[in-house]
Write a structure and sequence with these properties.
seven-stranded antiparallel β-sheet; FAD-bd_oxidored_4_C; single chain; alpha+beta; five-stranded antiparallel β-sheet; Uridine Diphospho-n-acetylenolpyruvylglucosamine Reductase, domain 2; 4 domains; flavoprotein; metal ion binding; Uridine Diphospho-n-acetylenolpyruvylglucosamine Reductase, domain 3; Vanillyl_alc_oxidase_C-sub2; Alpha-Beta Plaits; 34% helix; FAD binding
Length: 464
């Protein structure tokens, strides 16, 4: 069958205008935020119903054409990149919140619902959807589930996994499964829902999900604290956690702050220049809680862990303090950063950071390195910025040579090579640093059950 005949057969399964093959669409929908791989999809399909997704999967099985899911394309591991003639299945038109249950505090969403859309919907109903990150204005619920997205509130609320009450999926065989049916308690064997969370579309496509909502937090308040060194960050975390229920605890380096301030969008938090900064957030529900935060700050200053700090006094100041952290990824994207998204248990963070920092200093002496991350849950983002005098390929090649030492250190501390960005194509060759050979074999066997013909996002998580 010719390519044109294949395309015509696929086009007949969709509504008019919902299959694109022009070069601009192929380039736009064939990639995500990574810049490692050139997109080369066959076509972009936009289903509008579960039945159409099912028809696409059956067509792909019949003709042995690979499929790649596409949400907001904000991924950082090339999990949504179509580089080998795949058909991209984009969920932009499956973007409705279908049902709200005020008693169960749940919202049933199609896969293409944008994270911010769900957050605003929850707010309109006096509730809260807590999974939050810088790309919430464009990332989609299906993609969040596919990568088990985390973000800035994990220390209090956990990952996306914690908020999925149930889901509907189309497997790689074209079967429709309804998983868990939104139950809180369900002791009836394997929880297949959890297999699809974090699977990056390699088992099938999430087409609907019922997301749990929570009560809205009261009087969220942020503090930004300047620290003299890396060793001071974790004692500050411990001091505040022993007194307050934190909703976030982030950190970033002076180089990260320097890039943000250079944009001119937000003022410096205070005049004192510090090598590292911590941003923490909590509910100042009473004056007593706010006073406890200030007392803890004073204690940290007395211990020499904090050099200066500020606490938000208004919603606008809260937002400005958060911009110091949330704008980092977008700001440094100008330098085509090579990113590592790594994690260890919180207790191991200080030693782990020192080991990684030593590797970076020894091997990237001429590169600018920007540290930031969700240090309150053990997640660190290591960003090496590309110098102007190197091409992208030359720069990435230099960075890849150091990966072995970075990931050997991750393995030494029993950590993860990908804390929240997924494996995709950028981390697939390093999976063995976080998973045993036996675990990987079990994962591949599970994929074969749900996707026997290997059409669902091939080359992601595991090599082709």
């Amino acid at each position: 069958m010719t390519t044109a005949t294949l395309i015509d057969a696929l086009k007949s399964l969709l509504e008019p205008g919902k299959l694109l093959t022009d070069s601009d669409s192929l380039n736009t929908y064939g990639k995500d935020w990574t810049k490692h791989f050139a997109p080369k999809p066959l076509a972009i399909a936009f289903p509008k119903s579960i039945e159409q997704v099912q028809a696409i999967v059956r067509w792909a099985n019949q003709h042995q054409v690979a499929l790649v899911p596409s949400g907001g394309r904000t991924g950082l591991s090339a999990g949504a990149v179509a580089a080998n003639g795949e058909v991209v299945v984009a969920f932009d038109y499956m973007n409705q919140i279908l049902e709200f249950n005020e008693f169960d505090r749940t919202a049933r969403c199609q896969a293409g619902v944008v994270t911010k859309q769900l957050q605003q919907f929850a707010e309109e109903h006096g509730l809260y959807y807590p999974v939050d990150f810088a790309s919430s204005g464009s990332s989609q619920i299906g993609g969040n589930i596919g990568t088990n997205a985390g973000g800035i509130k994990v220390i209090r609320y956990g990952m996306t996994r914690n908020w999925v009450a149930g889901m509907t999926v189309v497997t790689g065989k074209g079967e429709v499964l309804e998983l868990n049916r939104d139950l809180i308690k369900n002791a009836t064997g394997y929880d297949l829902r959890q297999l699809f969370i974090g699977a990056e579309g390699t088992l099938g496509f999430v087409v609907e999900a019922t997301m749990r909502l929570d009560r809205a937090p009261k009087n969220l308040t942020a503090m930004v604290l300047g620290a003299p060194d890396l060793d001071s960050i974790m004692p500050v975390l411990h001091a505040f956690q022993s007194k307050l229920d934190l909703t976030a605890f982030e950190f970033f380096s002076d180089k990260a702050l320097e890039k943000i301030l250079a944009r001119g969008d937000v003022p410096a938090p205070f005049d004192t220049e510090c090598p590292f900064y911590a941003l923490l957030e909590f509910e100042a529900s009473t004056e007593e809680v706010a006073n406890q935060a200030l007392e803890t700050f004073e204690y940290c200053v007395e211990q020499g862990w904090v050099l200066d700090g500020v606490m938000s006094q208004s919603q606008q100041q809260l937002e400005n303090l958060w911009k110091l952290r949330e704008y980092i990824s977008e700001t440094i994207s100008h330098w085509t950063p090579y990113k590592n998204d790594i994690s260890v248990t919180v207790s191991k963070v200080p030693a782990f950071l020192h080991d990684i920092d030593a590797i970076v200093a020894a091997n990237y002496p001429d590169f600018e390195v920007v540290w930031f991350g969700h240090i309150g849950d053990g997640n660190l983002h290591l960003n090496i910025l590309k110098p102007d005098n190197l091409s992208k390929d030359e720069f990435f090649a230099k960075c890849v040579t150091v990966n072995k030492w970075v990931f050997e250190t991750v393995q030494k501390y029993h950590g993860s090579i990908s804390a929240e960005h997924g494996v995709g194509m950028t981390k697939r060759d390093y999976l063995g640093y976080s998973r045993s050979a036996e675990e990987i074999a079990c994962m591949q066997a599970i994929k074969a059950v749900f996707d026997p013909n290997g059409i669902m996002n091939p080359g992601k998580i595991f090599p082709l």
